[in-house]
Amino acid sequence: MDNIKKIAPGVVLCAVLGIPCLLLGKLFPVVGGPVFAILIGMILAAFVKDRPVLKDGMTFTSKKILQYAVILLGFGLNLGQIVRVGVQSLPVIISTIATSLIVSYILCKVMKIPSKISTLVGVGSSICGGSAIAAAAPVINADDEEIAQAISVIFLFNIIAALIFPTMGQFLGLSNEGFALFAGTAVNDTSSVTAAASSWEEITGATGVLASATTVKLTRTLAIIPICLVLAVITAKKENNSENKVSIKRIFPMFIVWFVVASVLTTFLPIPEVVTGFLKDLSKFFIIMAMGAIGLNTNLVKLVKTGGKPIFLGFCCWIAITAVSLIMQHLLGIL
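-> structure tokens emitted (335 positions)
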């Protein structure tokens, strides 16, 4: 009970902040609620950062509620549907994920970018934007400013992709199937994939592109599982290097295990759509709350001053993913 009293003020603040951000995200899907939450949180940080009564709740929201959001994300993944529709996209998905991770690793070493920011940008670019960052951040013990930096970078290239990809796809002569695969593999965040695919349908009069692009995007989301497990092993080895042993608990973060359980339950049990829909919406709101808490804990001035290298990293990952997606489609005869 005492613990609840300690965290309640900060959690309530993040929930109150999350409501208008959720609405703004629906009005402007190309930006998305999480980005609004981080931006508004950073603006409000000067007014709440030094108030001890809010600190515990804000920390709980940015850590624990973020993990709960990832668990609930699993209820949006029907593995059967993904296998049926998304299997042909696997070569492109695997290639783009590998490309982004390799680019982020090389630039991390060459440009001396902090490894945690590099990891988050690489994972966010290659898998599913904010959701992947939300899943990976607790595994590698990233702090709030590192998360905010990565989310900001992903947000920038999400907007650019959503705005220019439909026109770019027409210029390249992509088919409806080709553009769905292109948007699903080369756009970072689900909201931006939706925006790009919807624009394509409006411009071309096509149907089914939005559904196909979303399925490809959900197939990418499954990569959260192996990526987070690999990151957990690497992080655990670094932390236990002197003892040369690895904690099993760290290798298998429980919130990732529950994410898998949620996906399996959604696939094999007749859970009513109204229930899974509510849980998916709750997951989105939890992510918005967590991003608000991260914004409230972030030094905006420091973020701007240190933003150059991460933005360049995000740009390189984005360009590489875009190129590899198109090249792989050409090789597979999908274009």
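The chain is about 80% helix and 0% strand.
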